[in-house]
Every structure is written in C-alpha cells, then in structure tokens.
Amino acid sequence: xxxxxxxxxxxxxxxxxxxxxxxxxxxxxxxxxxxxxxxxxxxxxxxxxxxxxxxxxxxxxxxxxxxxxxxxxxxxxxxxxxxxxxxxxxxxxxxxxxxxxxxxxxxxxxxxxxxxxxxxxxxxxxxxxxxxxxxxxxxxxxxxxxxxxxxxxxxxxxxxxxxxxxxxxxxxxxxxxxxxxxx
Length: 183
Prior knowledge:
Elements: H1 3-17, H2 19-25, E1 32-36, H3 37-48, E2 51-53, E3 61-64, H4 72-85, E4 88-93, E5 96-101, H5 102-106, E6 112-113, E7 124-130, H6 136-143, E8 152-155, E9 160-166, H7 167-180
Parallel strand pairs: 2-5, 6-7
Antiparallel strand pairs: 1-3, 4-5, 7-9, 8-9
C-alpha cells in the first residue's frame, strides 16, 4: 500500500469512527514526573477523547511511571491508582469523569455491587456482602478496623455487611470474610 492510500484510510477511519473512537485504538506514552494533575488529566482527555472534571483544589503533583506505551484502559488504571494514593476518586457520570475527594465520592455517585469488580481500575464502590454462617454484627466487631481511611462499613438489613471502599481493599476484606464465614 502506498503512503497516500494509507493516509486516506486513516482519515476515512477517523471520520467514520469519530476522533474519540480512533484515539481509543492507539497506544501512547503516559509517564509523568512531579507533574500537575491538571496536565496529566488534560493529556489523558486528549488521548482518549473522554471529558474530565478536576476541581482546582485537587490539583496536586503526581508521578506516573509507564516504561512502555499504554492503551487507554491501561492509562485509566494508572491514573485511577495514582489518584487513589492521593485520596481522590473518579465518579463516572455519563460520558464524563468527575474527580473529587474519595469521602465525597462515597457519598455521591458510585456503583452498588453484589459482585466485586476487577482490581483494576481502582475505584470506589459500595459492596453488599451477604453472610451465611456468622452474624453481621459479630463480623463487624471483628472487621471494623479493615476499611481504608476513605472507607466505611455498616450492617445491612438481611445479615449483610455494606462496605464502601476502594476495590483493592474490598478484595482483601472479601478474602477475610470467606475465611470467617464458613462452616
């Protein structure tokens, strides 16, 4: 294929799929040293076509190290993990990513799940854990120290524990509950 034909195919693909879909197919460099979160989220938005809302009060300096080029989903996983380390969570609202303090996100819009999502990307969810063999009250006494500084745990109405926290910590808690809640 000659270069002119390749260029026409790329332009046609971009027009048919839209710039956001075309951007999502590419891998890109996503490493930052001591960089303002504003600049990082701006680059992420440019690369992926996603809209991001970042309140000025959350603009911190962050490090993200990716030795190779990454896909948009890998960039999202890196960004979300970096933000979680700073106590900042992402709330997905339609086609917009809204960044805010984790404690605010947990009282705002996050998914409620009965099955844990994968470990990546890091995000906050409310997880409902139904206990079979031990009472939620007894479990809560044993587990009360396990939520992260941004998480919380309460007793549900049907021998359940309702826990809002980072997905990574919820996986750990689920493993502990599996050990405690068996016959």
